[in-house]
Write a sequence for this structure.
C-alpha cells in the first residue's frame, strides 16, 4: 500500500481522479504474485484474458476509494485546466502486469475483490497513529514503523521510501504478503530491499496537497 502524500511530494507531483481527491489514507498499489525467491512473473496470458472493467462493475465504488490512481500519465484535462488521473488505466496496468499471473487461482473479479478485502482487513494509518506515528511532516524511525505494524498484524512489513524535492527520504510504501489464495496475510519469504530508506524518514502531510 502507498501513502499519497509521498507519491505527490516528488518532482513529478500527482493528479487526482475525476471522482475527487482521495482520502488522506494509505491506498492500494497492487497485489503482486511473487516467487519465494523474490522474483515475480508478469504479463501472463494478457492476450487471452485482457482487463475488462465490466467484470468488476460491482467493485468500482470500493476501488475508487481504496485503489485510486495518483499518476498524471494518461490523464485528461479537466474543466479547471488540471490533469485528472485515470483509475481505469491504473487498474488495467495492475491486472495486465500482475493480476493476470494469478489467473489460475483468481479470475479477474476474484483478484480485485481479494485485494480490496485485504486492504479492508488492516488499517495501516490507524496502526501508525496509535503508536504516535502521524502524517505531520516529521521524521520517524523505520524500526518503530516496522515494529508498530508487526505488533498489530503479527507480520513483519516491507518498507520502501522515495525522495521529496528537497532530497529527504520519506515513507512511501508498506508491503504485506498474502497466501496464494489472497485470503490471509503471511510472513513474507523475502522482504523488499529496504535500502531505499534511511534510519529516520519523513511521514509527509497529504491533506494540504493539490493536484497539478
Amino acid at each position: 500500500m502507498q501513502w499519497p502524500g509521498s507519491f505527490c511530494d516528488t518532482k513529478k507531483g500527482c493528479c487526482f481522479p475525476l471522482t475527487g481527491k482521495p482520502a488522506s489514507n494509505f491506498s492500494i498499489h497492487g497485489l503482486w504474485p511473487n516467487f519465494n525467491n523474490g522474483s515475480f512473473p508478469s504479463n501472463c496470458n494478457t492476450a487471452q484474458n485482457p482487463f475488462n472493467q465490466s467484470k468488476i462493475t460491482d467493485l468500482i465504488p470500493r476501488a475508487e476509494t481504496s485503489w485510486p490512481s495518483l499518476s498524471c500519465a494518461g490523464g485528461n484535462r479537466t474543466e479547471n485546466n488540471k490533469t485528472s488521473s485515470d483509475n481505469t488505466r491504473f487498474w488495467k496496468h495492475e491486472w495486465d502486469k500482475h493480476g493476470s499471473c494469478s489467473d489460475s487461482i483468481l479470475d479477474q473479479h476474484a483478484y480485485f475483490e481479494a485485494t480490496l478485502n485485504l486492504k479492508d482487513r488492516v488499517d495501516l494509518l490507524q496502526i501508525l497513529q496509535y503508536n504516535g506515528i502521524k502524517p505531520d511532516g516529521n521524521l520517524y524511525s523505520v524500526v518503530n514503523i516496522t515494529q508498530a505494524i508487526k505488533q498489530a498484524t503479527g507480520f513483519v512489513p516491507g518498507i520502501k521510501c522515495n525522495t521529496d524535492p528537497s532530497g529527504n527520504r520519506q515513507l512511501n510504501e508498506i508491503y504485506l504478503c498474502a497466501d496464494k489464495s489472497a485470503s490471509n496475510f503471511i510472513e513474507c519469504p523475502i522482504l523488499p530491499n529496504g535500502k531505499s530508506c534511511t534510519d529516520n524518514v519523513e511521514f509527509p502531510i497529504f491533506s494540504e496537497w493539490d493536484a497539478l
Q: What stands out?
A: The first strand starts at residue 139 and ends at 141. The mean pLDDT is 93. Residues 108-121 form the longest helix (14 residues).
